[in-house]
């Protein structure tokens, strides 16, 4: 290789290499973020006038639209495959806050957590058009903020925007475009004695949304605190990759109960790097299986069991369709309810109906937002059915790892028409998703580098 070619490569890579060198000196044991469900009273996004039915419909809308978002994400999917327009707020469930610092100044805003994309972006000052927001980020006024050059390795895909690296992305009806920049972000890390300490990471790349169309973060009116999106999918622009020296391509969480009727003020901690730990004991064993982090966290599902009986479900409906993402089974944080492809859901529903038929119970006609509901209350020796997902250890190892869903995560006492409960699962046309409600009180650890996910029951 000629000297001039080598010099050009070194100079082109220098900003990225400097970022990693700075990260080495800045890293602590890890970092953490606090997650809030979007319907939490802490965020005050849902109107106080919302009825129980309104809250149920809101959570169902989020779950169903996430399935469409996975399908719409793939570039080879035909535009007319989306059957209905979706408001962006309805696509997402968990929110966190990010802090950008400039000397003594701090800018903090809430962002949607999106495990399907690698790009983090927020709306910036001088946007046109803008979505309603109390305080867009004043990028050009901050001395610590610089635009990202086209030579930066994080400028992928290579999009030109007014002399610097640009970006664009679509979310259902919403579309954003602007330029990529770099600034210093502040995160919390575990210090001595379980005391949180602030850690600063310079030169973090993110997007400044300048032209933002059809984002309905304030769909219910009032002030909007949401500034944009935090992308946690692997990719050159992702926090996962940018903070690799600290995050080490590992993150974990343990979801607290969400109380879907009234919301929940409790926060869940999303931990990265050395903070992302998992451990068991003689009674609770950590279980691990392979997944595909670069395919929206696709998992190899082998079977579904109800009351210990394997249901007759053609496994082809859980096989990953890498062309259009019309089929597959995914694990994520963005859907409240579990979604099952219709053949699988029908088999689950039949097994549930057969179980409750022993007590002489018949399901309600579908007049509410959920598909399977009963008006009865458990008493005496009556019990809920058990349910489990059996994941393959790997695509080459047919051994199975069983994820058991406890009844409190499977059914919800809705209290809509007096008394009763509903199955917190819904049928979809195509892909399937393990919902956040069904992951409650389980510790999950995602190791993106080794393509492994581990879990254990744990009081969160």
Explain this structure to me?
The chain has 460 residues and is an alpha+beta fold. The chain contains seven helices and 27 strands. It has helices at residues 3-26, 52-73, 239-242, 244-247, 342-357, 407-410, 436-439, and strands at 30-37, 94-102, 105-114, 121-123, 146-147, 160-161, 164-171, 174-190, 196-213, 226-231, 250-254, 268-273, 287-292, 298-299, 301-306, 309-310, 329-331, 338-341, 373-374, 387-394, 397-405, 411-412, 421-423, 425-428, 432-434, 442-447, 452-457. The strands form five sheets. Strands 2-3-10-4-9-8 form a six-stranded mixed beta barrel. The N and C termini lie far apart (55 Å). The model is unreliable at 1-28 and 74-91 (pLDDT under 50).
Draw up the topology in text.
Blueprint lengths: L2 H24 L3 E8 L14 H22 L20 E9 L2 E10 L6 E3 L22 E2 L12 E2 L2 E8 L2 E17 L5 E18 L12 E6 L7 H4 L1 H4 L2 E5 L13 E6 L13 E6 L5 E2 L1 E6 L2 E2 L18 E3 L6 E4 H16 L15 E2 L12 E8 L2 E9 L1 H4 E2 L8 E3 L1 E4 L3 E3 L1 H4 L2 E6 L4 E6 L3
Parallel strand pairs: 3-10, 4-9, 17-25, 18-24
Antiparallel strand pairs: 1-2, 1-12, 2-3, 2-8, 4-10, 5-8, 6-7, 7-8, 8-9, 11-12, 11-26, 13-14, 13-27, 15-16, 15-20, 19-23, 20-21, 22-23, 26-27
GO molecular function, one term: peptidase activity
Organism: Saponaria officinalis (Common soapwort)
Keywords: Hydrolase, Protease
* Number of strand segments: 27
Structural class: alpha+beta
Residue ranges: pLDDT <50 for 5 or more in a row? 1-28, 74-91
Q: How do the strands of the widest beta sheet line up side by side?
A: 2-3-10-4-9-8
What kind of sheet is the major sheet?
6 strands, mixed, barrel
Oligomeric form: single chain
The total count of helices amounts to: 7
- Helix proportion: 10-25%
Pfam families: TAXi_C, TAXi_N
Protein name: Peptidase A1 domain-containing protein
GO cellular component, one term: extracellular region
GO molecular function, one term: peptidase activity
